Amino acid sequence: MSIAAAQVQNTSVITVPVPLGDRAYDILVGRGLIEVAGPRIAALGARAAAIVTDEHVGPLYAQALSQSLQANGLRSSVITLPPGEATKSYTSLERVCDAVLEAKIERGDLVVALGGGVIGDLAGFVAAIVRRGVRFVQVPTTLLSQVDSSVGGKTGINSRHGKNLVGAFHQPSLVLADTALLDTLPVREMRAGYAEVVKYGLIDDARFFAWCEANWHGIFNGDLERDEAVAQSCRSKAAVVVRDEHETGDRALLNLGHTFGHALERITRYDSARLVHGEGVAIGLNLAFRFSAALGLCAISDAERIEAHLAVVGLPTRLSHVPGGCGTVDELLDAMAQDKKVKGGSLTFILAKGIGQSFIAPGIEAEKVRAFLTGEINASRS
Amino acid sequence: MSIAAAQVQNTSVITVPVPLGDRAYDILVGRGLIEVAGPRIAALGARAAAIVTDEHVGPLYAQALSQSLQANGLRSSVITLPPGEATKSYTSLERVCDAVLEAKIERGDLVVALGGGVIGDLAGFVAAIVRRGVRFVQVPTTLLSQVDSSVGGKTGINSRHGKNLVGAFHQPSLVLADTALLDTLPVREMRAGYAEVVKYGLIDDARFFAWCEANWHGIFNGDLERDEAVAQSCRSKAAVVVRDEHETGDRALLNLGHTFGHALERITRYDSARLVHGEGVAIGLNLAFRFSAALGLCAISDAERIEAHLAVVGLPTRLSHVPGGCGTVDELLDAMAQDKKVKGGSLTFILAKGIGQSFIAPGIEAEKVRAFLTGEINASRS
Question: Can you tell me the ipTM of this complex?
């Protein structure tokens, strides 16, 4: 038996079901899952698979995955794209759609997304529209994509009018979250993904947040706690998605920390050297709770506890932590006003009555946001 | 009261419901419907509409439609594209998606397709993917699009690998089939659309075929029979689509005449000067019944009756009617083998036991098709 096969045998796999009726699927979480991807994917019954990946991830895993699929009877090909957000473009969409058609992928066949959120979003969208929909499998290779973008079926590309403005809801047939792939993830990316893990506790699961406080070392080290954190995050997101697949209501809870976070990403012009998505979310989570406290909704001690935990893992938590500055109050408000969640002179926020007690709060007056942000900016100067 | 308003009041509107659960919608059929499009569309409750049209149809109706929408409280804009199949491209897709976003169309708002099948397919696809899906309304302006492409939710663009290979299933919220718009349709386009009308009778409604034989003059003349023919065609297609929305079974019946027809379109290189889709379908319908007769499935007299009717309205019915020739047997078989309906050495045909008794016939050996086509070509030479 090879070492890889022995490791596989020792792997304990956690299965997270996503019960979406005739679009139901499983998320499998565990170390070394990519080693058994061939038989797992072949069990879906397709005859062919087109693997979509990027120039960072492809050289590490694409060939092995392709061979594993072929060994299990699937015709397989690899499409490799440049890494980075710019790949979520119309140009890539055409290129990948044509490559998938060139690979003779039929209705019953598969597109396999091997990469982070960019690859998952693009490949999922391609799968949604080639031949009006083929099946797809996600093999997310970052913590962020394992706990966030691989759950829920949102796919898409960016337009010059904004991010993710063109896309489809298309559920995967299977998600393989191999937590061993995170061993080589840069720590900054690991932290950024961790902000989304913490978010699930803050939304509606105070016990999970406390568990994160106690176990974050194990998550970062790649111990069994990492698998459990990924699985629990997927369970949390799946529960919300099942209640509201197409985001007409409850699914907005997943935007906790994101109204502030998206504004900061806009202000830093999506320059990942300054701020990545998860860092914006970390600051946003802290601000959402501080804003809730300022509105008298929640205890300031809850916000302080959250800030302390985000800080201990090395995440930014304050407007003053944004490299190059967060802009003026007016710039921040403008950036928020471009968000989908704005109606008239008021904004929709996700606020909280405490850790694990978040709720959708429509109709928050822009003036209250202004007063809060002014205080935050002044405090950072003093 | 204006003349237009008086005409509207005298219009009898036929409502064809398409009962697709939470995607249910109505097809309205009648003369002068475009005059009351504003209130009908406004009743859907949107705040804005982006009208997508082409350079032929737009100058005739787009401004009036836009004003009618605005008079009923909808912000409205017009996007005009070149006419013709080449508009179903990635380039147009990007252009229209960006124009719709520029027009600030939100989730609850509308894309309105004003044109024939090309505009309907493209605009419907844009509606399916902008913001992961906005609503859309079809105002089909050709007989073909009124009875075929505006029913059933198939949307899409062409790829260099083939027609309609990239797209989505996206049901409209409303279809307004104004039969008066067909008064100015070139007779060749009218005939081509009529081939699809006849098809519905041939699939499973012998009475409707007999009714067409008796009433085709009224349909072409714009009498009340035209409204009834459009409505009955929509009812027929809707019944099939409701049974099989995503084409996994019964919906293939709608391909009656299309395996031969698509092959002829390919051989004539989609050159509409030589052959338009409906002409290919007319020849294909006759061949499907002649092939069924050759296989001993149906009486040759049924095929002869169909051919006589198609000929009387001025449609081509034989391979020898293709301007510039239909190619050799091998070329025809090759063109059929490129069709989605081919598996291994056998083809899936829609065959018939008689008029109104069509069925899906998988596993028809290529050799039987070859023998039949050889006979057809030899007969045309003698």
Answer: 0.91
